[in-house]
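Retro notes (design track)

What went well: tokenization of the new backbones is finally stable.
What didn't: we kept losing track of which sequence belonged to which structure.
Fix going forward: every design gets posted as structure first, then sequence, in one message. First example under the new rule, 249 residues:
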């Protein structure tokens, strides 16, 4: 699967380009970036087969979306995409490990699942994530998927109070209809946590919600990443056209 390269100018350097990985070496570069961000920066405890590389059983089945610096050819942003047919071959989506997806079982063959989104610390001005969203939008349109699914993570650094507060806030306006509701396998104990802490909505979660995604239920606790994860589902028919035009420029 391929998408046409999309490029954008970056102040002070060459161009940033978004495209799918075309060689194993490029996937490896993305996995090294994931290790740098998730393990070294965020402190995730992941099983590591090769030092400095974040790799798991899903990677060989995924398409890997990359943002590259045109001067250094360095991978500075990445997103991996698990198409429904590949998820079927594998035995399920990544989200199946965290949630009971029974109520959206009938949607499986129309879904592309996204995850492992990260941006290099030196490139977090917004251009990279905008290009990743553009690449995702083009991917969805090119291959005709009707639903985009993925987890948005919230920090558990304060014991989960902030995550509980953020969930209470976003659920007021973005909770899915009951027929799209999923159930966490390792539930965050919301009733034991504060719900009134004022925190900024994480950029990735904010981006999903602006596009029109549903929050499909309560958060799951991911002990490996020490995050609380929300399952988000974006029906393409519900896509906010204002933001869609922005990302497809």
């Amino acid at each position: 699967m391929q998408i046409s390269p999309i490029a954008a100018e970056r102040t002070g350097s060459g161009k940033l380009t978004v495209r799918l990985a075309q060689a194993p070496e490029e996937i490896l570069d993305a996995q090294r970036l994931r290790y740098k961000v998730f393990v070294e920066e965020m402190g995730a405890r992941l099983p590591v087969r090769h030092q400095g590389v974040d790799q798991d059983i899903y990677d060989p089945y995924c398409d890997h979306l990359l943002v590259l610096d045109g001067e250094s050819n360095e991978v500075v942003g990445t997103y991996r995409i698990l198409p429904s047919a590949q998820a079927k071959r594998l035995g399920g989506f990544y989200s199946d490990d965290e949630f009971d997806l029974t109520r959206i079982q009938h949607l499986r063959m129309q879904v592309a699942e996204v995850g492992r989104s990260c941006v290099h610390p030196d490139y977090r001005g917004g251009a990279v994530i905008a290009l990743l969203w553009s690449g995702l939008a083009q991917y969805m349109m090119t291959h005709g998927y009707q639903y985009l699914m993925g987890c948005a993570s919230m920090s558990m650094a304060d014991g989960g109070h902030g995550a509980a507060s953020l969930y209470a806030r976003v659920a007021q306006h973005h909770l899915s209809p009951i027929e799209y509701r999923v159930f966490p396998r390792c539930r965050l104990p919301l009733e034991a946590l504060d719900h009134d802490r004022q925190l900024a909505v994480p950029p990735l979660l904010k981006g999903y919600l602006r596009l029109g995604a549903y929050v499909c239920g309560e958060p799951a606790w991911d002990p490996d990443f020490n995050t609380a994860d929300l399952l988000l589902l974006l029906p393409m028919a519900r896509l906010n056209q204002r933001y869609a035009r922005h990302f497809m420029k």
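Added context from the reviewer: The chain has six helices and eleven strands.
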